[in-house]
Amino acid sequence: MNAPAPAREPAVMRFARWVSILGHPFVMAVVMAVVAGLHFSDGMGGAPTALLTTLPILPVAWLMRRQVRAGAWEHVDASRRSERPVLYLVATVSFAVVLFGLWWWQPQSYLLRGVVGGLALVLACALVNRWIKVSLHMAFAALAATVLSLLPSVVGFVLLAALPLIAWSRLRLARHTGVEVVLGVVLGAVAGLAIRFA
C-alpha cells in the first residue's frame, strides 16, 4: 500500500512565501544600492561601486546557512528573538568593515551615508530585540522605499506601494506580529529620512 502524497501547500501561502523572498532585506539592500548608484553617477559607473556596499550580505548569508544546517535556527528568517543577537552581531561587524573600507577608499562617496544608515538600522533593531523582534523585511523595505522615493526614483514609489503586500506576507507566514511589522516600517523610514536629510 502506497503512502499518501504529502498535502500541497495552499496557493495563498506559496504567494506569501514568494512575496517574502522578493521583499527580503538582501534584495532590498541590493536594489537600493544599485538604483542610488545609477542615480548619483548618471550612468552604469556607479552600480559596481554601489554593489560593494552590499558586501555585509555575504557574512550574514553564510551565518544563516550555517545556523539552519546546524539546527540552531528553525529557518533562515531567524524568527525567534533568541536567534537574533548573533545575526545582529555579524551584521554590525560586516557593516562596520564595509564602512571603514569605503571611508578609506572613497571618503567623499554618497554611499557612506547609506552604509551608515544601514548600520544604524541594524543597531536600532538589535537594541530593541530584548523586548521585541523587529521585522527586518519591513525595516529594509521601508528604508529602500524611503531613500529611493526621495531621490526621486520610480523604483522607490513601486517599493512604497509594495510595503503593504510585504507586511501581509510576513503576517500570513506567521513570522511577525502586527507591532513588529509596524516597528520595522517606522525604523526603516526614520533611517531612510536620516540618510537623505541628516
TrEMBL record:
Q: Supply the source organism's classification.
A: Bacteria, Pseudomonadati, Pseudomonadota, Gammaproteobacteria, Lysobacterales
Kindly state which keywords UniProt assigns to this record, in alphabetical order.
Membrane, Transmembrane, Transmembrane helix
> What name does the UniProt record give this protein?
Phosphatidic acid phosphatase type 2/haloperoxidase domain-containing protein
Segments spanning the bilayer are 21-40, 46-64, 85-104, 110-128, 140-167, 173-195
